[in-house]
Amino acid sequence: MLKKELIINSTTAETRIALVEDGSLVNLFVEFPDAERNVGDIYKGVVRKVLPGMQASFVHIGWPIDGFIHFSDLFQSAVDMAEGADMEEVTQPEKREGRKRAWKPRAELKAGQEILVQVIKEPLGTKGPRLTSQISLPGRFLVLVPGDNLVGVSKRIPDFKERKRLKSILKQIRPEGFGLICRTIGEGKTDAEVRHDLNTLVRLWRMIESRIETAPAPSRVHKEAPLTSSIIRDLFGPDVDRVVIDDKRLYREIRAYVRAVARPLLDRIQYHEGPGPVFDLFNIEQEIEKGLSRRVWFGGGSYLIIEQTEAVVTIDVNSGRFVGKEEQEENNLRVNLKACREIARQIRLRDLGGIIIIDFIDMYGESNRKKVFDAMHQALSSDRAKWDIAPISQFGILEMTRQRTKSSLVHAFNEPCPTCNGSGLIESKETVVTRLQSWVRRFRAQTGEMGLTIKAHPVIVEYITQGMRSHLRRIMWDSLLYIKLEPDTTLKIDEFKGYSWKQKRDVTDQFEARFVEKTGT
Predict the structure, then answer these.
(1) Is residue 206 part of a domain?
(2) Domain-terminating residue out of 185, 204, 224
(3) Which residue from 32, 98, 353, 382 has the highest number of Cβ atoms inside 10 Å of its Cβ?
(4) Is position 499 within any domain?
(5) For range 213-233, the mean pLDDT
(6) Residue 435 class from Cβ within 10 Å (0-12 exposed, 13-18 middle, 19+ buried)?
(7) Largest pairwise CA distance in the chain
């Protein structure tokens, strides 16, 4: 039986929630007090632009950047959205006779039209939030879908009789004008427990409806529960052995919530009073560090190289020093099979989403590629996010997609470098000096002045002045200009400032290169 634990570390800067399975960190959720979590929020928005060619629209919800809604998110069944990250869990619900699920005509959406939308994916980089018009409200055991009339049961409840029992309860209690989905955690719950959850959700929706009637557009009409509360709601069930919390206030809040919705689980909530950090006790800090590293070792000298960009994630499998007694094909198969488990764990831990390309070690046998594909499929089976994988090509490449609802672990724990602007690269010293020399020539040619002061990063100043044949001498000789060079630690390594003696001011921007786009006539 898999041992599952939720470990919660709370500081003044952030709250971190770790899901640990059999001693291994498999998921990490991070909440910052100053950073809003938006998935699940409901907005009264205004259609900004309709793009028939893209089958999408941009919706203004009061943010600096508009939300994006695809027509499939406008008109498909809300059941596909109901479990958030658990979309694959939901079975196709029973349809009422004559019910048609086709998309409505695009012409029904017009610029300036008000529309009720829900955030299903956080903004990332320059992309705005992903939206849907199919609203869903998750509860402890149920998901309420206003405006629908369907019922469904999570696929992760495997027992046929239990599924049939739950579906029967849903049909009996479903209010008119609402769809209902039973979540995985609803397995084994009584009619009374399910009804209580339904009543809570219906009351919540009535409050949201009253806000919708009076709220201007654009504005937010519902805020999803904080991350910690939603994680406890979604993940803390009978299959979780314990929840360990190191913050007294949060410990009391979680106990109060669980006392109200799942009293039998109350004794599984523990307060960490030890002298050391709770994450150290479970070796989580080291696992986080591993999850942020580009190189990940997974035994026998083998390792993964994980590269993450906004467009695609690449994972390269390397055998390293791994050498077995079998022939090369068998060695490659063994490493690839072992890599599957670590790749699946890293994908969940880092919360990698979008397109993921995995480059396995080459295997010539079709049967071996099939074994690795099956192993990868099995390793991903416990992932709650929606994913899809394609068969491994003859070159050892596996392509997959994974649902992205929030920023990855790397983006959660890091911010763009102020020097390289997040590119991971800065200009070389040679490039900076070349750019500086061009700037000096423009200054001399356009002003005719005979002297100026240049301020630059100390590394650049040292590079320019070192040696008898220094760059500074060459620059002054070429431009017939006297230059006073001063180090300035407040400047980035690729920045410099030019000060005119005659004008007695900073003239840097005045003589920067100007690029004019050429257009055809």
Answers:
(1) yes
(2) 224
(3) 353
(4) yes
(5) 89
(6) middle
(7) 92
